[in-house]
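Re: that backbone. Tokens:
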């Protein structure tokens, strides 16, 4: 469900800049297949190199033989339950956040991701399968510099107890917090780099309460809706009171997954974002609200 948010802008002096890196793509294509979280159907994604300044573009292969390109950019974003989605010319691509996070964190700027369905595979609910595929395909630098969005003054969005704020800072640094019944407060803070993302963020799985997830799947089935039809302990970390079925992969796994989703959603800005983020109880709606608020206020950032 779409949630309205309030937005505020907080003045702050800009910080120093860092040297630009070169844009990068993949050395070779890779292909991965699996079941999707919401539709429960099988999908195949082929991710291929693209030229400099191309960006991340999803190419949806339709049953009538047509192919429609949907750029992974914030103004194509469409609100969908429990996922990030983009739509162009009536063509939907959804549950893109884990691949987007892996590409962004591993500094892959230009690819074409072809998909034969409307939803990407969920795999085990984490971004690790995408990271492994990207590493195997290898990163290939290109001749053009990578331009980054450098935050010049703080921008914040909030809804109730949920708040998401970005302030000036070198690189991307995230401080995340959530509080869950039977788990208490869960926190993580650190710089998002290729190594830290793969080690500390990517393995964290989508999560939810077991009872609610199974009820949602049953409701989707009865109503013939594509909602949580692929959810199971194999595709998510399911919570039962104060424990995770099968155990946590990482300490504080739920907040780390919220940060994973945030990294993927920020990537829809179209360029890497540099700043210090504080994320309190954030989710996809708030993440996208921050991106939209930031991009619309062109006085709050520079493209360097």
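Recovered sequence:
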């Amino acid at each position: 469900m779409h949630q309205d948010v309030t937005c505020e802008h907080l003045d702050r002096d800009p910080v120093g800049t860092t040297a630009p890196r070169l844009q990068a793509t993949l050395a070779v294509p890779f292909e991965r297949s699996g079941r999707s979280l919401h539709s429960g159907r099988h999908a195949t994604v082929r991710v291929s190199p693209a030229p400099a300044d191309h960006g991340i573009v999803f190419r949806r292969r339709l049953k009538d033989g047509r192919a429609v390109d949907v750029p992974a950019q914030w103004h194509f974003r469409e609100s969908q339950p429990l996922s990030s989605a983009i739509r162009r010319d009536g063509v939907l691509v959804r549950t893109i956040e884990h691949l987007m996070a892996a590409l962004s964190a591993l500094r892959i700027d230009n690819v074409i991701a072809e998909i034969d369905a409307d939803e990407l595979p969920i795999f085990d609910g984490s971004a690790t399968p995408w990271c492994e595929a990207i590493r195997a395909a290898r990163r290939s630098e290109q001749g053009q510099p990578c331009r980054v969005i450098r935050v010049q003054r703080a921008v914040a969005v909030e809804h109730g107890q949920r708040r998401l704020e970005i302030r000036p800072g070198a690189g991307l640094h995230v401080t995340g917090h959530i509080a869950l019944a039977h788990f208490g407060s869960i926190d993580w803070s650190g710089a998002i780099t290729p190594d830290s993302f793969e080690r500390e963020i990517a393995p964290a799985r989508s999560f939810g309460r077991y009872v609610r997830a199974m009820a949602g799947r049953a409701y989707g089935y009865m109503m013939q809706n594509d909602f949580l039809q692929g959810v199971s302990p194999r595709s998510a970390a399911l919570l039962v009171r104060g424990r995770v079925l099968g155990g946590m992969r990482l300490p504080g796994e739920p907040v780390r997954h919220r940060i994973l989703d945030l990294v993927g959603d920020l990537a829809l800005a179209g360029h890497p974002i540099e700043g210090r983020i504080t994320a309190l109880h954030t989710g996809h709606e708030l993440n996208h609200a921050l991106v939209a608020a930031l991009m619309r206020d062109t006085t709050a950032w520079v493209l360097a």
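Helices lie at 97-105, 128-137, 194-201, 210-222, 253-266, 284-296. The first helix runs from residue 97 to 105.
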